[in-house]
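Bumping with the actual sequence this time:
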Amino acid sequence: MLAASAKAHKNLHKLGFYAQHAVHRLLPSALLHRQRINLLRSFKALPEDEQRQILFRVNYCNQLEEDVELPEQAVSLANFKREKSGTYYLDLLSVLRYFPPDQRFCHRFGDVTTVPDVPTLVKSRPINDYNQNSILLKLNRVRHYYTVKDSHRYDDKLDLVVWRGFCHQEHRRQFIRDFYDHPLCNVGDTHKNAHGQPWHRHFMSVPEQLKYKFVLSIEGKDVATNLKWIMASNSLCFMRRPRFETWFMEGTLLPDYHYVQLKDDYSDLEEKVIFYRDNPAEAKKIIANANRYFAQFMHTDRERLIGLLVMQKYFERTYQLLPWYPLSSK
C-alpha cells in the first residue's frame, strides 16, 4: 500500500512538471521578454542582504569573470531542438525563452564530470577552482528536486542507516560489500544484476527510507540524487565530502553542519552512527541546518530570477548582451 502511494505521488510530481512546461511554452516570447526586464528591475527593490544572497548564488553558478568568444558550433535559441534528454531540454528552454532568440550558447546534458573547454551550460561539474566554463543551471529538476513530506518525528525513527540504489560504480560496490550485513545498516544494491548476491535488496521508496534516522547519500556518476530529499526531511544525512556539484551548490555544504561527513572509505560509519544515536540534540541541529539550506531552492520566483541572472551573465561574458549593472559591478 505504501509503495503504491509513493509511486502515485511521484507520478503526480512528474505530471505537474510536464504540465508546467506545457503552459510555459504557450506564453508568447514577447511577454517573457518583458517579464525578464521587470524581474531584473525588481532585484533593485529587494533588501540589500537579499540582493547579496542572490548575487552570491549567481556568481557561484556562473564563475565567468573574463569575456570570451563562443565557438562556431554554439547554437542559438532559434535553432535549439529537442534532444534525447527531454527533461533537460525543457528546463533549459524555460530559461532561454526569456531572452532574444538570436542569443547563442553551448550546452551539455547528462551527468557532466569534466570541465568543458568553452563556457557551457551544464547540470553538474567537478568541485574545484578551475570550473569557470561549467555554468550551472537547474536542469533535470523533475528528478533531482523530488521530495515528499516527512511525517515521522526524528525521535520515532529507527536507529539505523538506510540506503538503496544501483551499484554501477566501484566505490558504491565496495561500500555495499563492506556494510550489507552490518547490524547498524539496512543497505543494498537494488539492480537486477545483483540478484543472487548477499547484498541484493528490494527497492525501498522514499517514504519507507524516511522511517530511518540516518540516510546515506552516495554519489553515483556525479551527484547523489537523494541528497535533496534527505536534507528536506527529518532524517540525518551521512555522506563523504562531495566531489561534484549542481545548482544545489554541494560545494558550499559544511561538514557536520549541513551533513555528517564520513571518511572516504566509510571506516568511521559505525562510530558516527553510535555518536548521533546517543546524541539526538546534535543530530537535530544538523537536520535543522539542512532544512534551512534546502528551503532556499524552493522559492519559485527567486529561483526564476537567479536562473535569469545566471544566463544574463553568460550572455554578457560572451559579447551578446550589454552589461547589467549589479552583475558587472561584482
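The C-alpha cells above came from a reply further down the thread. The radius of gyration is 21 Å.
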